[in-house]
Amino acid sequence: MASPVRSRLSLAMERTGKWVFSKDIPTDVVVVVCEASFSLHKFMLLAKSNYIRKLIFESKEPDLPRIDLSGIPGGPEIFVKAAKFCYGVNFEITVQNVAALRCAAEYLQMTDMYCDNNLAGRTEDFFAQVALSSLSGAITVLKSCEDLLPLAEDVKIVQRCVDAISLKACNEANFPSRAPPNWWTEELSILDIEFIGRILSGMRKRGAKALALASALITYTERNLRDLVRDHSGRCTESSISDDSGMYARERELLQSIVSLLPSEKAALPINFLCCLLRTAIFVKASNSCKNELEKRISVILEHVTVDDLLVMSFTYNGEKLYDLDSIRRIISGFMEKEKNMAVFSGGDFKETCSAAMHRVAKTVDSYLGEIATYPELTISKFNGIATLVWKGARKVNDDLYRAIDIYLKAHPNLDEIEREKVCSVMDPLKLSYEARLHASQNKRLPVQVVLHTLYYDQLKLRSGADDQPDAAATSQLQSDVSLVRENEALRSELTKMKLYISDMQKNKGSSAKSISAAAAATSGPRKHTFFSSMSKTLGKLNPFKHGSKDTTHIDDNIAVDITKPRRRRFSIS
């Protein structure tokens, strides 16, 4: 690291020595600047520098053979140029060194008040006439001021650069002078974020549009956070990213500053860029205020989000693990709250009247659930938590949600019946299309209740020829029948258990013959009402096909019924 610096310093010392020692006057002072030393003449220096003159005349040492100027702005390189100016040797002033020379002149008090046509005046002329005349020149000068603070602020170099850049960038944004039109955003992206904030504020005061300010921030972010911000396809711009978020302290501060500068207009920033910023904020563990601001901005324009945008915020950079989905839930909740307020303001029922934006968001959320359903980190509560955020009225059909549920059940095969019912509870089977109902009726992964819903609905359609949605009476009848079926199933299960229990007791008795004779005696006598006959009567009352083709309750017990076993028939196509 020190080798290039030392070589430059020795080269500067060698050049300085040539024009110093060419005069046959011995040097009388050694000027030390950091690690470099220069043998110079006092009378040449104090003729231009009031600071050096004070050091020499106010020193307690009579000759003062050594002067330390390590605090000079710009270091040894700039001091060499200042010394050349004192000796009357020509040197070049450029946009790269003019700010440092102006600050060095201020530090050494080489102003026109001390001496006419001094270094400060020379640098001021170049700064005003050359550096500030072009956007690129002003940006280069401002960039060089980053290492010259706070002195560059004191001599007004920074503010003058900011004003010039704001004016010229605003003109370029409104009336581009060359292609591409946003070339000026690339120029700005080399600056420090603090300078960017001041420039954008100046542009806003001069009437720059929000889209121009957003374009500058997007270019700046893509250049300075290129290792973290994804491209529009959701992929990372770098092939490898460390999972240690503690390594990104600088990036975290930079991201928080960028978010604080975002224009307030909701349509100024593309949704995918906001999603990328939120993804980066989650990864680098940005402040809650930073993440909340991004979540709020995304929720306002959520109807424009795509499934890929939501996936960008959900996964780690390698795409192998789900992040915490709290941000996704807050974004959807914020959108729903906005829709609710708009519906209430317009005097409608927000659960009955759904906007087109609401329908788009519902479809996007359901498709998103289908994409993340295969990941083991997605628990039932998280899956249902996201699905239930969307009002049921916002889903015209539940096909996308059914697809997500089916994928989830397939990816989690160890769920029991109750857990599968919990997963399916977010779906309305009556809102499935014919194709989806047909698939659901044959889907062995679905709970029995969901299959019954779909089958019964199809039966209602065949009988009544009604529209795709059943009326309230049909829905009520369906719920009643499903309840009866469940009770019937429970009673049959209890009956089976009781039979098994009695069977075990009979096997444990000593004599099976006694049991047989006792059973025969019991059957030979008059018929009595037993537990099983009572149970059968109860089960018969729970017949879900009451008043249907298989209803037998209207048949009189005294009428003879042919109970002979029907002849088996072969069904074949010949």
TrEMBL record:
Signal peptide interval: none
SMART domains: BTB
Keywords tagged on the record: Phosphoprotein, Ubl conjugation pathway
Protein's pathway: Protein modification; protein ubiquitination
All residue ranges annotated as the BTB domain in the record: 27-95
NPH3 domain ranges (all copies): 182-461
InterPro entries hit by this protein: BTB/POZ_dom, NPH3/RPT2-like, NPH3_dom
Pfam family, one: NPH3
Membership in a protein family: Belongs to the NPH3 family.
Protein name in UniProt: Phototropic-responsive NPH3 family protein
Organism per entry: Populus tomentosa
